[in-house]
From TrEMBL:
Residues 35-91 form a coiled coil. This is Translation initiation factor 3. Keywords: Coiled coil.
Length: 213
């Protein structure tokens, strides 16, 4: 009986040891390996994050330096261009001043010479020049009067329904002393007669009133 108990206990111990060796220890080893793997992955991820942050910071620093260098170069170029422009403008003012002085001197000398020449001509031609000037003035007055009469006659013809054309009416409006707004309104009214001849007489009446005819 005691041997049976002994051997039974021994079998239980051996079975427990076998279970520990075959099941429990591999499970612990697997858990340990899994923990080491997770730790390694976490460490690698942390190192990658730190490296990415460092790379981003370095890239930002380099970009800031490049932007600063570009801004400085732009400012220097603008300052150089402004200085060159000022120098060019100053030289141009100096050259223009010299040219203006020379031109003024030449003009003054030419005016003096012309005045002297005209004085001499007037002295030699004074009697005949007076008569010629009077005749020219009379002819000019007569020509101006004839031109005025012709213009008045043309204006009256343009305002006659029998002789009306839109082109002549538009020319008459444009040549008048009316303000721009009134001219625009009258021109618009004249344009309507092209498509509706029945409006010619009312439009002519409006033109006569505006022009005081």
């Amino acid at each position: 009986m005691n041997k049976s108990v002994f051997f039974g206990a021994l079998l239980v111990l051996l079975a427990g040891g076998g279970y520990y060796q075959l099941v429990h220890l591999p499970a612990q080893e697997a858990a340990h390996l899994e923990a080491e793997r997770a730790a390694a992955e976490a460490k690698a991820a942390a190192e990658a994050r730190v490296k990415a942050e460092a790379d981003a910071a370095e890239a930002a620093r380099l970009k800031a330096e490049a932007d600063a260098a570009e801004a400085k170069a732009t400012q220097e170029a603008a300052a150089a261009a402004e200085a060159a422009a000022r120098e060019t403008a100053e030289k141009a003012r100096e050259a223009a001043g010299a040219a203006a002085d020379a031109a003024a001197d030449a003009a003054e000398k030419a005016a003096d010479a012309a005045a002297e020449a005209m004085g001499a001509v007037k002295d030699s031609l004074a009697p005949s020049a007076g008569a010629a000037a009077e005749a020219a003035a009379t002819a000019a007055d007569q020509a101006a009067e004839a031109a005025g009469n012709a213009a008045a006659a043309a204006g009256e013809a343009a305002l006659d329904a029998a002789n009306f054309t839109a082109e002549r009416a538009l020319e008459l409006i444009e040549a008048s002393s009316l303000d721009a707004a009134t001219k625009a309104q009258l021109k618009l009214a004249v344009e309507t007669t092209r498509s509706n001849p029945a409006l010619i007489e009312p439009v002519l009446e409006r033109l006569r009133t505006a022009l005081g005819r």
